[in-house]
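Pasting as-is:
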Amino acid sequence: MKLEVERVSKRFRSSDNLPLAVLCDISFELGVNEFVCIVGPSGCGKTTLLRIIAGLEQQDSGVVKMDGAPVRGPDASRGMLFQDYALFPWRTVRQNIEFGLEIKRVPPAVRRSISRHFISVVGLEGFEDRYPHQLSGGMKQRVAIARALANDPEVILMDEPFASLDAQTRVAMQRHLLRVFNESKKSVLFVTHNVEEALYLGDRVLVFTKRPGRIRAVLSLPAERPRDLLDPEFVKLRAQILEMLNQELKWKDQEPA
């Protein structure tokens, strides 16, 4: 397995300084060239889990392994994409894509060759010298994807990357991401609140409980793509996931204030 998460738990301190359990005993694996989606109620620790896997947060217990070695902190084996793109506004498309390569002191000519390749991969030829404020939301997210790919990570972590896009752009980005995924052969861990998106993209879907987040169910999806979400099998899976999420929300509503 490429990535292993073994019994990971995490607590924070609440505003009144009491311990607040966010994740509880999370265990799963992500294989080579596998696309796994995570869905769950708001506040169930999905983003925290990605940050732990990326090495940006430290779990309280459990272990995260890449190729059998424990994760000790951020490194180039894991690339993370955020909902807000996290582009540098003072850098052009090309300069944003080359940022990680500059940090690694890749020679300028090699950086330019790599950025040129991934600009082509994400379909942004002709926009190399534009700044983020000159791009649409979908184009900004393509820059973020190209930047992650340019660093050649083994695993790409995506935290609701299409949540702020309009419906039409979101569908286009989903299709574009699948094409890039098929060509790059990367492993992807993708957090979303959108059940249809999870069913369209993922090889498996992990359904989380309300906080503290636990894995309630793991659903495997048919391998063939593209998928017809109107197919009765997917309609049934969608209803199954939504029912689980609705049950979590009902339990949350029943909690004392």
